[in-house]
Amino acid sequence: MLIGNLCRLSGRVRSCVVQPLTCLFTTSTNMAKSKFEYVRNFEADDTCLRNCYIVVRLDGRNFHKFAEQHKFTKPNDDRALGLMTRSARSVMGELEDIIIAYGQSDEFSFVFKRTSTLFKRRASKLMTHVASQFSSSYVFYWKDFFGEQPLLYPPGFDGRVVLYPSNRNLRDYLSWRQADCHINNLYNTVFWTLVQKGGLTTVQAEDRLKGTLAADKNEILFSDFDINYNNEPALHKKGTTLIWEKRDETVTKRMKRPDWRGGGRACDSQQEDGAGLSL
Ligand SMILES: Nc1nc2c(ncn2[C@@H]2O[C@H](COP(=O)(O)OP(=O)(O)OP(=O)(O)O)[C@@H](O)[C@H]2O)c(=O)[nH]1
Ligand SMILES: [Mg+2]
Ligand SMILES: [Mg+2]
């Protein structure tokens, strides 16, 4: 076992000198184990209720600032959306019980199948694995989407776990996230059109949109800018859904076949399989 020296941190992380604990407690390893093991009982049981869909939702930390600093195009940056989707694919590839994922803006929701026993259904394990796989993928694939534009600092994502007991609840959850996408995208599309094409300041655009309903916003786009909101890209209006696509199914059959002794013998036959993600 290794123990690190504790360093006082003053704004910056300082490196720690690491020394083997066994040097200090060579003769009392077993005793120490039994004496200290009780601390395990302080861990909270966060097992997710059986039969429920487990949804992990991630959201970018302070992405308002992150988007500004990395010059995301307004209102939607397809590079950023593509990178989010690529990172979500990586999560789905690693955590096989995720059946569907939905993303928009700086968030992604991952739905685990109801019968999943992954990490013994422990909420903290599921959430942290999703968040860390997603975050590291976001950094890893950054160049594929932003080319030479540098990543200025490491982005973070928060996570939460929500359980949904019925298909109806899950469908309503996904509809809720998609409605959020639609409402925000309609607002942002009109807002930035007023600024970029209409020459309004951001304050004036905000004033112009105060109290307007969806129909009013559609009308502003259509009458003043000849833009039909229905023709905007589905990616921006509706977000992204990732599902598994069956390619070749694995069929495992157990059957009896007569052998020369006249008895029956069981055998397994299996076909190779493969599965891929589709948008
Ligand atoms: N320009 C631009 N900004 C985006 C895009 N996608 C996300 N954002 C920014 O990311 C923000 C995401 O909103 P929130 O998640 O509510 O806010 P946040 O700033 O991330 O704050 P917290 O989530 O509370 O940490 C948006 O308000 C935008 O400012 C994009 O495609 N283009
Ligand atoms: Mg955010
Ligand atoms: Mg968000």
Automatic annotation (TrEMBL):
Residues annotated for Mg(2+) 2 binding in this entry: 59, 106
Biological processes, Gene Ontology terms: tRNA modification
Molecular function via GO: GTP binding; magnesium ion binding; tRNA guanylyltransferase activity
Residue ranges annotated for the Thg1 C-terminal domain, each copy included: 168-257
Stretch list, region Disordered: 256-279
Ranges in coiled-coil conformation: none
InterPro entries: Thg1_C_dom, tRNAHis_GuaTrfase_cat, tRNAHis_GuaTrfase_Thg1, tRNAHis_GuaTrfase_Thg1_sf
Subunit record text: Homotetramer. Interacts with MFN1 and MFN2; functions as a guanyl-nucleotide exchange factor/GEF for MFN2 and also probably MFN1.
Protein's recorded name: tRNA(His) guanylyltransferase
Organism: Collichthys lucidus (Big head croaker)
